[in-house]
Amino acid sequence: MNILITGYYSEGSKRRVIQAFPNEWSVKVIEPELIEEYISEADVLIPEHIQVNSQLLQKAKKLKFVQTGAGYDNVDIDACSKKHIWVSNAAGVNANAVAEHIIAFMLSYFKNIPYLDHFMKNKKDETQLSYTGGELFGKTIGTIGLGAIGKRVAELANAFGMNVLAYDINKNIDHKIATLVELEELIEKSDVITVNIFLNESTRHLVDRQFLSKMKKDALFINTARGPIVCEPDLIAALKNREIGGACLDVFENEPLSLESELRQLENVILTPHTAGMPDGMKFHQKRFQFFIENIKRVLENKVPFNHLNEL
To answer: Collapsing DSSP states into helix, strand and coil, what is residue 69?
Structure first.
């Protein structure tokens, strides 16, 4: 069984990931640029930062299964189905990890943790300390999407005494933990907006200049979903011009984030490197990889994989 994983991993992270799989499986973790050198021998593909399309699949002679994380916007599901290749995602597996990251973003932002940490470590005069902060209690958070992550965010936000609004295209969704509203109302009334939806053509650049112009002038925008949901130049302009209060971002239109990106220079932004769903800092989340392994075993046993996105 040959497992091929693509992505940008440190050597330590590669070892941690490989050790998670059964010893009898051959596991390779490669940079995305090397995919065409290795795809022909892969039985299972776990793809990051590559497009799994017809062109690639023509070279995937042995491929039986494509397992993604929560998002699957980089996989042509129809093309996989034509090749009799199962496709599954891991939606919900890392929901709590991502939701906690969103809460951590809010606390860091409103409590000015990055600024205060920098202030103390640079031995600045505490009598000259000047900043504005806030509390989560009583603020309104709006989650765009009320799936596994959105629901967990709502639960945690309720514990902080926040008012929770939610927008979801599924109007019949269980919403006891949030008040369902239309997107326009959520944008206009929320002190914090968090994006918890999949990337597809209907959500690409959902957050653009028009969206941002409707937000409160001191509102916080959080994205831990997918970078291209946001039109990044529009967001940068809104942040630079103080049209919104700030942003906390774990995902970006192009990853890894360019060293020259203006986002790295803005004081009203907190950044993390697409780690919300993998909280141990080694690009590893035990629950996530346990799910991957169990799903691969199901395919080996000719069973239908969990969270399958196609029918064979």
So the answer is: coil
